[in-house]
Every structure is written in structure tokens, then in C-alpha cells.
């Protein structure tokens, strides 16, 4: 900790917290050197609630279920439509983290949801494994599953669209 606690340090820490939120980071650590034997070590951490489940021993060997394709839209020659970006869909369920996506609780089990299934808000729709932790992903709203955009066992990025619930 710095021997010189100043308004500049408070402003620096506030700026780090804002940077953390703006870039959707969960942790940020910085060391600010003032001179010999004088520095400021700052670690800003955003807490989140995660539901964990013990990982099955052979989960990676799960068979991939068939994913329903989007219904073909009829396009008129006069007005060609741009391809729809699933991430921009108002019913998109996006990944809250980087990890591996699973559609069922264990290999060979019935998937949490299928295309056409009705889901309640908060119902588990899939699992994302991150750092050997199984994170249940709840439905953000009640509705009907229109599309499943990932396959079982697929790696996903933060913010990637996983399914469409309307």
C-alpha cells in the first residue's frame, strides 16, 4: 500500500472499477510504482453467483444430438433479406462465460430442452463447464425454444448466442 494516500489514488481505483465494468471483466489487478519501497497494489474483483455441480467423469464423450435447422424463409427477388444475426435477436440466450456447452446433465441423458419446448423463466436450459465447474444456465424469460444454436460439447465464447427463446 502506498504511503501517499491521495485523491489521485482514489480516482485511479475508481477508473479501474469503471474499466472493469465497461469491458465486462471479472477481475483486474494493477501495481502502481511511486518510487523505491513505495507502491500501490490494487485488485478489483466483481463477484457473481454461480451454481456448481460435480462434473461427470466422462462428459466429453457425450453424443451430439441433432440440432434443428432454422426454417427456410422465402425471399422475394425484389427485396433480398440480409442474413439474421442470432446474437441480435431479442429472444437470444447468450453465454455468460467462456467454456464448453452441454445440452444435457450427463452423457446419454435427455437434453434439458429441445426445439419447440416451452420453458419457464429460471428453468435450466443448458450447462456451461468452465474450469471444471458445471454452471447451470437458466432461461432468462418464459417462452418457447425456437432454435438451438450450439451442439453438445461445443466450446463457446462470452456473449455467444446459444439459443432463441420467444
TrEMBL record:
GO CC terms in record: acetyl-CoA carboxylase complex
Organism: Neotabrizicola shimadae
CDD domains recorded: biotinyl_domain (cd06850)
Keywords: Biotin, Fatty acid biosynthesis, Fatty acid metabolism, Lipid biosynthesis, Lipid metabolism
Any Pfam family the entry gives: Biotin_lipoyl
Function text: This protein is a component of the acetyl coenzyme A carboxylase complex; first, biotin carboxylase catalyzes the carboxylation of the carrier protein and then the transcarboxylase transfers the carboxyl group to form malonyl-CoA.
Superkingdom to which the source organism belongs: Bacteria
Coiled coil: none
Bias (Low complexity) ranges: 73-85
NCBIfam families from the UniProt entry: BCCP (TIGR00531)
Region (Disordered): 73-93
InterPro entries, per the entry: AcCoA_biotinCC (IPR001249), Biotin_BS (IPR001882), Biotin_Carboxyl_Carrier/Decarb (IPR050709), Biotin_lipoyl (IPR000089), Single_hybrid_motif (IPR011053)
One MF annotation (Gene Ontology) recorded for this entry: acetyl-CoA carboxylase activity
Name this polypeptide is given: Biotin carboxyl carrier protein of acetyl-CoA carboxylase
Pathway linked to the protein: Lipid metabolism; fatty acid biosynthesis
Amino acid at each position: 500500500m502506498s504511503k501517499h494516500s491521495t485523491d489521485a489514488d482514489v480516482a485511479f481505483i475508481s477508473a479501474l472499477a469503471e474499466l472493469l465494468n465497461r469491458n465486462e471483466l471479472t477481475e483486474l489487478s494493477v501495481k502502481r510504482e511511486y518510487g523505491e519501497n513505495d507502491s500501490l497494489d490494487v485488485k478489483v474483483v466483481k463477484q457473481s453467483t454461480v451454481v456448481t455441480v460435480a462434473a461427470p467423469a466422462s462428459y466429453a464423450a457425450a453424443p451430439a444430438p441433432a440440432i434443428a435447422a432454422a426454417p427456410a424463409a422465402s425471399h422475394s427477388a425484389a427485396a433480398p433479406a440480409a442474413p439474421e444475426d442470432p446474437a441480435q435477436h431479442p429472444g437470444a440466450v447468450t453465454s455468460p462465460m467462456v467454456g464448453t456447452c452441454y445440452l444435457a446433465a450427463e452423457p446419454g441423458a435427455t437434453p434439458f430442452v429441445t426445439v419447440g419446448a416451452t420453458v419457464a423463466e429460471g428453468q435450466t436450459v443448458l450447462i456451461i463447464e468452465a474450469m471444471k465447474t458445471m454452471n447451470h444456465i437458466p432461461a432468462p424469460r418464459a417462452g418457447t425454444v425456437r432454435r438451438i444454436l450450439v451442439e453438445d460439447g461445443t466450446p463457446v465464447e462470452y456473449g455467444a448466442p446459444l439459443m432463441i427463446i420467444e
